[in-house]
Design a protein that fits this description.
The structure is a single chain. By secondary structure, this protein is an alpha/beta fold. It is built from 9 helices and 10 strands. The strands form 2 sheets. A 6-stranded mixed beta sheet has the order 6-7-8-3-9-10, with helices on both faces. The mean pLDDT is 95.
Length: 248
């Protein structure tokens, strides 16, 4: 589905990504996990061609190299939810969701049917669709962002910290809903998070990044029981469980 070969990215003096080699299997959820600044967003943007990797690196999407020439077209097959949702504040939820379909000339009836279907999938009450983003809760905004990413029925869904701005109970509810949605759709998903619990809950495989490099790739039990190096264990232990206080 997706193959990254020799991907590096340099911003001036900063090397945000260093020779990443990664295979992303079809129909599974892959988590990009890592601290802030480890290169997760850069990697997502390179996948969908919003930024170019350094010379010598290539992203293959469904076997096709992503280039500046074809990126726009390929992006129709890649739904993208950016950090903080990125909804247009001057458009209603409905208009935000429908934007790309309208741009591609879908008839109003088809758009209506698709938006209703997606509201059901993401459990957004239909009366929310006429609201502007500021009139929605954080969780509802993320449901709308997800609807917008899914409108064209993409083969690949890219989610950059979709739940990062939500408080714990809403976040946990959305995690359950996302898991359900991923199962229903059976799409290839790449989701960025720095939360290891979320990574283990949602991911079929986890790719742990540190300073632009892959430290380990595997399931959560693999990261916990056979860490590739001491950083993996440090990273896992740094996220304290609230229950820990009880065993003191
Ligand atoms: P993450 O999403 O894991 O927090 P990013 O991919 O946003 O990490 O950033 C990786 C590194 O690249 C950081 O050191 C960041 O400061 C740097 N960086 C990201 N975008 C730019 C940019 N447009 N210009 C310069 N440096 C950048
Ligand atoms: Mg980021």
């Amino acid at each position: 589905m997706l193959e990254l070969k020799n991907i590096s990215k340099t911003y001036g003096q900063t090397m945000a990504l260093k020779t990443i080699e990664l295979f992303i299997p079809e129909g599974k959820t892959t988590i990009l996990l890592g601290q802030s600044g480890s290169g997760k967003s850069t990697l997502i943007r390179i996948i969908n061609g919003l930024i170019q990797p350094d010379k010598g690196g290539t992203v293959f999407f469904e076997g096709i190299p992503v280039t500046p020439q074809n990126a726009l077209e390929l992006r129709h097959k890649m739904g993208y939810v950016i950090q903080e949702g990125g909804l247009f504040p001057h458009l209603t939820a409905y208009q935000n969701v429908a934007l790309m379909a309208g741009y591609l000339g879908w008839p109003a009836e088809r758009i209506d049917k698709r938006v209703t279907e997606l509201a059901q999938l993401t459990q957004l009450p239909l009366d929310m669709l006429s609201r502007f983003p500021t009139q929605l809760s954080g969780g509802q905004r993320q449901r709308v962002s997800l609807m917008r990413a899914l409108i064209l029925d993409p083969d690949l869904l890219l989610l950059d910290e979709p739940l990062g701005a939500l408080d714990p109970m809403i976040r946990s509810e959305l995690q359950n809903d996302l898991k359900q949605i991923f199962q229903t759709l059976g799409k290839t998903v790449v989701l960025v998070t720095h939360d290891i619990g979320e990574a283990g809950f949602l991911g079929d495989q986890i790719v742990l990044l540190r300073d632009g490099q892959i430290v380990q790739q595997g399931s959560l039990p693999e990261l916990v029981h056979t860490p590739a190096d001491s950083f993996v264990t440090q990273f896992i232990n740094a996220q304290r469980s609230p229950l820990e206080a009880l065993s003191l």
